[in-house]
Amino acid sequence: MKNFGLLLVTALLLGACGGVRKSEKDLARGNYDQVIVQTLDNLRVNKSAERKEPYIALLKDAFVKAVDRDERRLDFLEKEDNPNTLRERYALITGLSLRQDRIRPILPLPGTKFSFTDYSDAIISIKNDLSKHLIESSTQLLENGTKADARLAYDDLAYLEEINPGYANTTALLEDARYKGTTFVRLALVNETEMAIPARLENDLLNIDTYKLNRPWVQYHNREIENLAYDYDLILSFRGIQISPELVKERILKQEKKVKDVFDYVLDKNGNVKKDSLGNDIKVDKFKTLRADIHEFTQSKSTQITAQVDLIDLNTNQLEATFPLNDGFIFNHIYATYTGDKEAIDPKMLPLLGNRPVPFPTNEQMVYDSGESLKLLFKDILINEIRVQ
């Protein structure tokens, strides 16, 4: 038991030394805030004043150096007086305040004192200046009229809403930036064939929700919204639909199987039954051949669809891209009957004997079934090929 206690103390001491050495290395590298987090964790865990001592020294050193670094950077940016650095200045001043808030709960610490500064007035002042700047710069970006600028404005306004919720007309500007930065794509299906496209297939193909597209600045509409200025037309055109005749093909499969029937006695040259060494009659198996004919019927019908996806830039009236789509569907059903001896039939063929002829699918169903795989091809084009900004 004493040995276990000694081992435990040794392990704890080694762990503590390792933690101190790591923090010392981070301090030397200038990772001051990382050192502060590490030392605070260790100070909360360690109850012994002796074991706390090195962490207290590291915490104080890291805090002083971090504050000096940030305040020097802040002083430089204030002298530069560039409104584009307001965001960095705000991050620095709030960081200085938050750093103090992390340390406060663990104070006081023996043998050292921390000098804290009240940054509240400076934070309010810089936040007001930053808020005003973001509103002005975002408004200018939105007036530029490009989607790229509107998206930049949206990011700035979202940040403003985060640090200063409800400031001025941020909410209205956010909605404006979202609208102006969004690319609107109108989906359409065109049937250039002489065959009707099933309504449910058309609905499935144009139901954009089923494709799970993740494009925050692109909206696809399968129903046109009045007075909305669309940027692109995405048109899926059916060019051709070929449906084969309903066919039934028959083939006859010959089946044979030898089975044991009865037995014969083995006779000697005098016509007497031969005996084995034990005096028993010698017999030989007699086989017979069973035969059957399987009449296998195959019902088949196929569909082939030719289509094309066109992307048209409505701002330039130019065809941006085109993608061919070709797919089909094959209906096959096999059943069988037989004549002859069923015992002669290969067991692998027996399940077919339980099948019966079925009605052929309608042309509409064939087109719909073809469209199921066509949807996957269309989705792949939407996700991997279509490039709209």
Q: Rg from C-alpha positions?
A: 42 Å
From the N-terminal CA to the C-terminal CA, the straight-line distance is: 71 Å
Topology pattern, helix = H, strand = E: HHHHHHHEHEEEEEHH
General shape: elongated
- If you average the pLDDT, what whole number results? 89
Mind describing the biggest β-sheet? 6 strands, mixed
Low-pLDDT ranges: 1-16
Proportion of helical residues: 40-55%
Query: How many β-strands, per DSSP?
Result: 6
Strand content: 25-35%
Record the SSE blueprint.
Blueprint: H1 2-29, H2 32-45, H3 49-80, H4 86-103, H5 120-144, H6 147-163, H7 170-181, E1 183-191, H8 199-206, E2 218-221, E3 232-243, E4 247-265, E5 283-313, E6 318-340, H9 350-353, H10 363-384
Parallel strand pairs: 1-2, 1-3
Antiparallel strand pairs: 3-5, 4-5, 5-6
List keywords for this structure.
six-stranded mixed sheet; alpha/beta; Lipoprotein; 46% helix; elongated; 389 residues; 10 helices
Give a description of the structure.
With 389 residues, the chain is of the alpha/beta class. It contains ten helices and six strands; from the N terminus they run H-H-H-H-H-H-H-E-H-E-E-E-E-E-H-H. Strands 1, 2, 3, 4, 5 and 6 form a six-stranded mixed β-sheet that branches. Helix 8 links the parallel strand 1 and strand 2. Helix 1 packs parallel to helix 3 (49-80) and helix 6 (147-163) runs antiparallel to helix 7 (170-181). The longest helix is centred in the N-terminal third of the chain and has 32 residues, at 49-80. The chain is elongated, with a radius of gyration of 42 Å. The protein starts with a helix and ends in a 5-residue tail after the last helix.
